[in-house]
Amino acid sequence: MRRIYLDHTATTPLDPRVMEAMRPCFSGTFGNASSVHSYGRDARELLERARGTIAQAVGAEPAEVFFTSGGTEADNLAIMGVMSAVRGREGIVTSSAEHHAVLEPCRHLSENGKDVSFLPVDPYGAVDMDALRLQVGERTALVSIMHANNETGTISAVPAIAGIAHQAGALFHSDAVQSAGKIPLDVRELGVDLMTLSAHKMYGPKGIGALFVRRGAPVDPMLHGGGQERGRRPGTENVPLAVGFAEAFRLAVQEREEESARLRSLRDGLERRVRELFPGIIVNGDPAARLPHILNISFNAAEYSLEGDMLVMNMDLEGIAVTSGSACTSGSLEPSHVIRAMGRDEKTAKATLRFSFGKGNTMDDVGYVAERLKIVIERMLKKRTG
Ligand code: PLP
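That is the input. Now the predicted structure with pyridoxal-5'-phosphate docked in place:
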């Protein structure tokens, strides 16, 4: 059976070139990067070269890049680390459409006495700027708003948001896990103090990410027990994965313009077909500021009455991998918190599908997916009425 993977926001396959870059680090240059002997120094050199490549990809200095076990840890380190280090300010301002890796540490801190505001978003999923201006004040330690949303692809007005945070004397963190390698990313232009990255969304290995921390920004470590990553993230450095991350990011930046244009044409092609097939469909996300590879649609409840999870399962039976929400909410019967936050009713939010394109997809896939989707939906609607 033909199989088509359209869930690149959940994860991407490892690029064979990344595999080749990593291979020598597993057994050849296996030393502990913190050892003083030549084995250690060789590993250290690879690690620092990888840090330099990642720093360059985002316009940072190498000393501002801290390796973590992934995006989740980097988000947690940013939020918990800043709230532990900053004295005299107890407030966090974030949005209700953030990834769980931001929402959950914020909730945890809220339960432990911090003052957390989860701001509303507009119908496109962008944070409400008036609410932001109202909430950010002299008690705010940290503002955390993602660069681009993993479910809808909506891109936030990060420089403007950073400006509001800084005017109030707060730090600004942005989760750029989904935008990295897809759109230009420069920490100085964005005005971020902290920024989260993850390798496995850009054809790199799973289990490694990084937190950019602007020089001088206060962040306490969450782990204790070693001095690695200049004390911010102790634990023996994972040189093979850092090397893979750097190679994946280097390739993503190098190939970004051409690949993003290609992905956009696939995404727009599917959007056109889906709109023709299902009039009245809702396309979620900001049409003027959206990542190029994500198409998120809802079948409005009044017209279609479909369950997203059933749609996902039926598409899977056709060999097509899509999701109804983010990877962690799919599989549960809860509708996506992002689509709900955008103002959709619960039933419509549940009837949501996310297609995310990647390197392996072609225009031929677009026609096939649209055709199978039509068959699946007709079958589901018939079953319902029959
Ligand atoms: N932030 C966003 C926006 C994501 O999409 C993801 C992954 O789904 C994460 C954070 C978590 O990253 P990781 O899987 O590397 O922990």
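The chain has a mean pLDDT of 95.
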